Amino acid sequence: MTKYGVIVGSTRKNSYSEAVAKAIVKGLPADSDVTFLNIKDLPLYNQDYDANSPEEYTTFRKAVAEQDAFIFVTPEHNRSISAALKNALDVASRPWGENVWAGKPALVASQSISGISGVLANHVLRQSLVFLDMPTMQQPELYIGQSDKLFNENLEPNNDGTKEFLAGAGEKFSQFVSNFK
């Protein structure tokens, strides 16, 4: 059984990023252990806390360390990832030399209600994951544009093409992850 951590870069309720993440997860094997890790309540990373970290940091780092692989889904905020997502990456990679992301395979998906699909956020996130030593699945590239038109009021894919594409990415990711076990 593989433990998949899911990090949704949006902190708003009923986000399209969460909808994309849930659709990807549907393609994982039935025996997968999937945990959505909450990033919205993490205090802003501050190096002054390295010697005596807040409980939220310790709990989050432990949850990250327990996962075998990660699915990241991010919205695009001002041509980058959300502040909450960047903060989560920083919290679990510090103090220096105690990076709990290292070696864990990653899938990156981005979404936007615009036509450019969060492509820049996707690549900004990928740059950070390279530094964090996370092997990242390259194909399929998951740039989900006009996300507000792809999901219904229950935040489920409103067409078979979207549903199959996202679940297929989850299935391919499980195959990618099996190369690291």
UniProtKB/TrEMBL annotation:
GO MF annotation terms: FMN binding; oxidoreductase activity
Residue ranges of domain NADPH-dependent FMN reductase-like in the record: 3-147
Transmembrane annotation, as ranges: none
Pfam families per the UniProt record, alphabetical: FMN_red
InterPro entries recorded: Flavoprotein-like_sf, FMN_Rdtase-like_dom, NAD(P)H-dep_reductase
Record's GO cellular component terms: cytosol
The protein's name in its UniProt record: ACP phosphodiesterase
Species assigned in the record: Enterococcus silesiacus
